[in-house]
Structures are given as structure tokens and as C-alpha cells.
Amino acid sequence: MGVIVAVDGPAGSGKSSVSRAAAAALGFGFLDTGAAYRALAWSVLEQGGDPEDAAAVERALDGFAFESADDPDERWVRVGGVDVTDAIRTPRVTAAVSGVARVPAVRTRLNEGFRARLAAAEPGVVAEGRDITTVVAPHADVRVLLTASAEVRASRRAKELPDEDHSAVARSMAERDAKDSRVVDFLEAADGVTTLDSTDLDFDGTVAALVTLVREAA
Ligand code: C5P
After folding, report:
1. Whose CA is nearest to atom 10 of ligand 1?
2. Do 77 and 88 contact (CB within 8 A), yes or no?
3. DSSP character for 167?
4. Which of 3, 138, 169, 186 is least surrounded, with the fewest CB atoms within 10 Å of its CB?
5. CB-based burial, 74-101: b 16+ in 10 Å, e otherwise
6. Per the annotation, where are the binding residues for ATP?
7. Alpha carbon 96 to chain centroid distance?
8. Residues whose CB falls within 8 Å of the CB of residue 212, separated by 6 or more in sequence, listed in order
9. Is the C-beta atom of 157 inside 6 A of ligand 1?
10. Would the pLDDT of 153 be above 90?
């Protein structure tokens, strides 16, 4: 089995972009687990279902065929062959995703797929999400909680969404973290998980710190 690097963190911590860049630097594959939850939320909305209704979510889960690029230099995400790379990042999907993610059958099913991807990864993979260090891959070779202060996270996210109102972005991020952390705890590092606080680091510095943690462990 290849080297498994598990990275968790709250919204706006930069875990996707940092994990992707670290995977590229290491020559590893990359798995963005949030993309799978987002893709399922997109499917529920596409079918006209209510993402807060567990029965509608379970209907969408039936036959849900998620695929995403392993290569960190590629970004595509597909559901049943349909490219949803951009569609899963809209505010509408972002607002729907926590409802979908709290359905236990969803977590069980998606985790199976994630574990199969991790088991097949050679020479390694960086997987990021909310419960990778604790539930999906508690025995990963490297386990990291990537954090940053709430202010820094909100301002980084606002830069990604220049057309949105900054305080609205901060509010919706905090609401999503509050909802998500009722389902899985990613606000505190679990036993044996290294906290990487990027509040005072720039992007390259954060990637370098993650790559160093992996190289030290290997
Ligand atoms: O990381 P990202 O913001 O794309 O995640 C989208 C959503 O997917 C989160 O807000 C959370 O509801 C859900 N999620 C999860 N467990 C994971 C990854 C994401 O519940 N491992």
C-alpha cells in the first residue's frame, strides 16, 4: 500500500489547495472528499429533491456514480459521466451540502469509495476532508489538521469569491462549520494528529510545511 496522508480542517482553511499542491510536489495522487459530498448535493438538487430530506438524499445516493481526478494537476469531477467540476462550487450547492453530509447512509457509502481509492494509491495519496484523520483513514501514515484563525479563513475565502459580500461569506462559513462539526469533529486535533496552523504562513509556506511533515514521516 502507498503512503496515505490525511488532512482535515474547517472551511476556508486552504486544505484543498494546499493538499493538492503538496500531492503534486510529492508525486502523489489527490482525493478531495468534499467534492463527493458536494456532487451528491448537486444530484439531489438536480432531481428536484430537498437536501434536508434524508429520504430524498438516499434516493439520490442510489446509483450515485462519483468520479474525480486522481492526478493533482487535473481538477475534473463527474457524476454519471456528467462534468460537474464547476457546478458543485456554486453557493446553492454549498448551502445544501451539510444537510446531505449528515445522513449516515451517505457517510457509510462515500467512505467505502474513499477507502478503496486510498488502498489503490501508488506511491501515495493526499486525501482531505473533515473526518479523514479520524474515520476514513485513522491509520494513515501522516495525519494533519490544517487550521487558521477565523478571520484569516474568511478573508481567504472572500478573495476566492470577489463578487460576494465579505461579511456574508464569513457568516455562511461559520454556519457551515457549526453544522458540520455536529456530525464530525474537525475543530480539534484528535490524538496523534499534527496541527498545522497556517494563520501566519503564506500558501507556499503552508505547502512546504505539509510536504516536510510527509517527508519526515516516510
Ligand atoms: O471541503 P468542502 O468545503 O468542499 O466540503 C463540502 C462539505 O462536505 C462540508 O461542508 C461537509 O458538509 C462535507 N464533508 C464531510 N466530510 C468530509 C468532507 C466534506 O462531511 N470528509
Report:
1. 98
2. yes
3. H
4. 138
5. eeebebeeeebeebbeeeebbebbbbbb
6. 9-17
7. 15
8. none
9. no
10. yes
C-alpha 166 to ligand 1 mean position (Å)? 21
Q: Nearest Cα to 163, choosing from 87, 90, 85?
A: 90
Angular region, 14: left φ>0, alpha ψ -120 to 50, beta rest:
left
Joined grid coordinates for residue 1: 500500500
pLDDT at 24 over 80: yes
> Cell for 3?
503512503
Query: Phi and psi for 196 in degrees, rounded to 5?
Result: -115, 105
38 lines ligand 1 (CB under 6 A): yes
Q: What is the ipTM of this complex?
A: 0.98
CA distances to 12, 84, 106, 148 from 199, rounded to whole Å, are 11, 31, 32, 4
Question: What confidence tens digit (pLDDT) does each residue in 199-215 have?
Answer: 999 999 999 999 999 99
DSSP letter (8 states) at residue 89: G
User: What's the grid cell of residue 89?
Assistant: 462550487
| Ligand 1 site, residue 30, Cβ cutoff 6 A | no
DSSP state of 132: I
Among protein residues, the one with the nearest Cα to ligand 1's atom 20 is 101
In tens, the pLDDT along 12-22 reads 899 999 999 99
- Nearest to residue 16, comparing CAs of 37, 36, 30? 30
**218 CA distance to ligand 1 centroid (A)?**
28
